[in-house]
Specification:
GO biological process, one term: chromatin organization
Helix content: 25-40%
Keywords: Chromatin regulator, Isopeptide bond, Mitochondrion, Nucleus, Phosphoprotein, Ubl conjugation
Radius of gyration: 44 Å
Order of helices and strands: HHHEEEEHH
Subcellular location: Mitochondrion; Nucleus
Number of helices: 5
Number of strands: 4
InterPro entries: NSL2, Znf_KANL2-like
Strand content: 5-15%
Organism: Stercorarius parasiticus (Parasitic jaeger)
């Protein structure tokens, strides 16, 4: 840019204006002097504030206990992430939609929290209703009595199956 000013013929008004714009574009979004110092200090303060808040939020979240009361005693379990209740008492939270209590059966009522799944009535593993059996075993056919009483003398014993002489093995190509 400075070589244009030292030329023998000088600059016209339009060229001077273009040169000014070019210099402004080089400095675009760059801070100099006091402005740069203040901007750096602001960035450092923001970093300290956000790092401190993140650490503080992490320590408070990890140490939060369940808000449920059982027999006038507060539950000592750790709460689930982003909630105020533990897994055993999550159904007490009216705003949550991820868990429902197990309906159980007529003989054995159950209120254990179960994750909502694709079924309309989610159940715990104890009260899960299995689908009907798809495999039906074949019926055993009755064997006629005459086949059951087959003579056993038709079968050879293990000693009779042994070869009496050894024959050489021959291989051909």
């Amino acid at each position: 840019g400075s070589s244009l000013l030292t030329g023998p013929e000088g600059l016209m008004a339009k060229e001077r204006e273009n040169l000014k714009r070019l210099k402004c574009l080089r400095r675009y979004r760059q801070r100099y002097g006091v402005e740069a110092l203040l901007h750096r200090q602001l960035k450092e303060r923001r970093m300290l504030a956000t790092d401190g808040a993140a650490q503080q939020a992490h320590t408070t979240r990890s140490s939060q206990r369940c808000l449920a009361f059982v027999d006038d005693v507060r539950c000592s379990s750790q709460s689930l992430p982003m909630t105020r209740h533990c897994l055993a008492h999550i159904c007490q939270d009216a705003n949550q939609t991820l868990f429902k209590p197990c309906q159980g059966s007529e003989e054995v009522p159950c209120n254990k929290p179960v994750p909502v799944s694709l079924s309309e009535e989610p159940c715990c593993p104890l009260h899960l209703r299995l689908p009907p059996q798809m495999y039906v075993p074949e019926q055993v056919l009755a064997v006629p009595e005459e086949l059951e009483a087959a003579p056993t003398d038709l079968y050879l014993s293990a000693a009779e199956l042994q070869p009496t002489e050894s024959l050489p093995l021959e291989f051909s190509d």
